[in-house]
Amino acid sequence: MSTIAAISTGQAAGGIGIVRISGENALSVADRIFRSVSGVKLTELKGYRAAFGKAVFQEKELDEAVALVFRAPKSYTGEDVVEINCHGGLLVTKQVLRAALESGAVPAEAGEFTKRAFLNGKMDLTAAESVMNIISAKSDQAKQAALNVLDGSLYKKISEISLSLKRISAQMAAWVDYPDDEIEDLSDEKLTNTLENAKNELKTLISRFDRGQVILEGVETAIIGKPNVGKSTLMNMLTGYEKSIVTSVAGTTRDIVEETVTLGNTVLRLADTAGFRETDDTVEKIGVDRTRIKSGRATLILAVFDASAALDGEDEEIFKLCEGKNAIAVINKTDLDQKLDTEIINRVFNNIVYISAKEERGLAELEKTVEELLGTADFDTTQATLMNERQLVCCKSALDSVEEALGSIEAGVTRDAINVNIDVAIESLDTLTGERATESVVNEIFSQFCVGK
Ligand code: GDP
Prior knowledge:
Blueprint: E1 4-7, E2 14-22, H1 26-33, E3 34-36, E4 49-57, E5 60-70, E6 81-88, H2 90-102, E7 106-107, H3 112-119, H4 125-136, H5 140-150, H6 153-177, H7 188-207, H8 209-217, E8 219-224, H9 231-241, E9 247-250, E10 257-263, E11 266-270, H10 273-278, H11 282-294, E12 300-306, H12 313-322, E13 327-332, H13 342-348, E14 352-354, H14 363-374, H15 389-410, H16 415-433, H17 439-447
Parallel strand pairs: 1-7, 8-11, 8-12, 12-13, 13-14
Antiparallel strand pairs: 1-2, 2-6, 3-4, 4-5, 5-6, 9-10, 10-11
Helix pairs in contact: 4-5, 5-8, 6-7, 6-16, 7-15, 15-16
Guanosine-5'-diphosphate binds at residues 225, 227-233, 332-333, 335-336, 356-358.
């Protein structure tokens, strides 16, 4: 396999920048672009050793650097790896990378380091996928859930289910293939119990998926309400709540900026909030969010009402938008005299929170209500969590096959036919962990990574 190189740290100026080189020739490539102060060559160093010196290219000094040596198989990728730590300037890291590429390495593809780790048996697919979630985690709960999967919680759970099915499958196959030997026939009871158990475990995993996604990916949230009810003030309160976590990411859609705020453990993904801060146009103000609600993209609606004003016709439209949705009525301006008819609100909404955005009161209550509504409050991040659609699809197809097998037992179908269902279930589970994933599945997964990971 070729020796690959990439910048593994973020594409922004920072204290340290790391160029990672992995492959058979990693040490000799690194020796061409690194001179240690002590004169020692990296090829002479044992694993887990560091050398201080200079990154150089064709006798020209590029930067001061520290080279870390990892020897196969004890490295992230399972191959020889050198990490050159230089100053984190964009130009510096690019020059060091260029030097590595001119000295025998080829550019790493997206996710190639982690893909090699998978191919070399350093981690299974669920662990590799969790790396992506750890990198993008915006809340502690999200990070914990992902770390747990990296630690093997999901792999262990899926392997256990798969192994229990493999055992009964092997026993049935042996009994069919060697009828003369004294192989114990699998009783219907044992077969049913094993399948029922697999079914329940898979159902539990699947039932946790939506809540897990809310924790891992955040929840698409729409804030709606008439002009002047306090939407912007609420937004400011939310963003001010944990300013360091507020990010503005240019979305893929033209001009749409997505902002995320962390409300306790829940990451709320908000639409173009900058837009509704600047405009006075009512239609435009709730326009973005109205589209998001109608298209079903918004999973959570915060409908803001002014406690100091009576309801009017315009509120009817807001009621309609909230029908049948995960909506919370946020009654704002509770510091003023109340004129709002809360009885009507009580009839329309199951969840109501009273706040004063101006006085920054009621946020804890809002946080609690959101968590209860989304079921994230008691989500146990120490349990195995499915991290993405791919894993969900594998689990669902395994469940279908297990249920088919159970149906076949009841219908009195031959063991041979039942075993076909069980084999399909095993295949789905082994695809999930990567034990039997096809090359195209593996390529697809790692292509979603960034270069350098
Ligand atoms: P938006 O049009 O819904 O975004 O409303 P704004 O956030 O711009 O607020 C409209 C006005 O209501 C502003 O003058 C705010 O200062 C005021 N306001 C917002 N929240 C409160 C509150 O909790 N109490 C009081 N008394 N005034 C508030």
